[in-house]
Amino acid sequence: MVEAAEPEIVYEIVRPLMDELVLLVSLHGGEIQQVLGDGFMSVFGLHSWRGDEADRAVRAGLALVGAGGASGARLAVHVGIEYGEVLVTPSWDPAGFGLWGRPVNLAKRLCDLAGPGELQVGPAAFSHAGTHVGSAKTVRARLEGIAHTVVGHLVTVGPEPLAPAPVAPTR
Comparing C-alpha atoms, which of 10, 9, 46, 13 is closest to residue 30? Predict the structure, then answer.
C-alpha cells in the first residue's frame, strides 16, 4: 500500500487499526515500547510481574491477528512473540525505555517470518504460555541475526480471537 498511495492515505487507513491494536495490547496488560510506521513492539511484565506474561502476550497476539482479519477491509496483521530476560535502559525521546536482549531480537525475526494473519511464537514463549497457545505447527527456521536454527510455533487463529484475560491494576 505504501508503494501505491500517498502517505496521508496510508495513514488514514492504518491509523484506526493501529489504535485498536494498541488498545488490545493494553487490555492484556502490555505496554507499547516503540512504534515505527505500521508496526510496534510491546512488552509484558515490565512494571509488574505476575508470572503469566507469556500467556498474556500470546492472548494479545491472537487478538491482534484476529482484529486484523475481522473484516475484508482490514489489513493483515502478523505477530512474533518471545519470552525471556531483557535489559531495560533509558532511551531517547519519545520512547520511555529501551529493551535489549535475545528475546527482543528473536521476537522481531519471528514477526518477519510470520505471514499475513499469522502468529509465530518462539520456543521460550511457547513453553511458558501453557494452554493459551492453542494448536500450533512446529516450524524450524534459520533467521537473520540468530546463530542457530530456531524452533518456532506457527499458531492458528480460530474464527474468533480469545477474549482478554482479566487485568487487575497494580501499583
Answer: 46
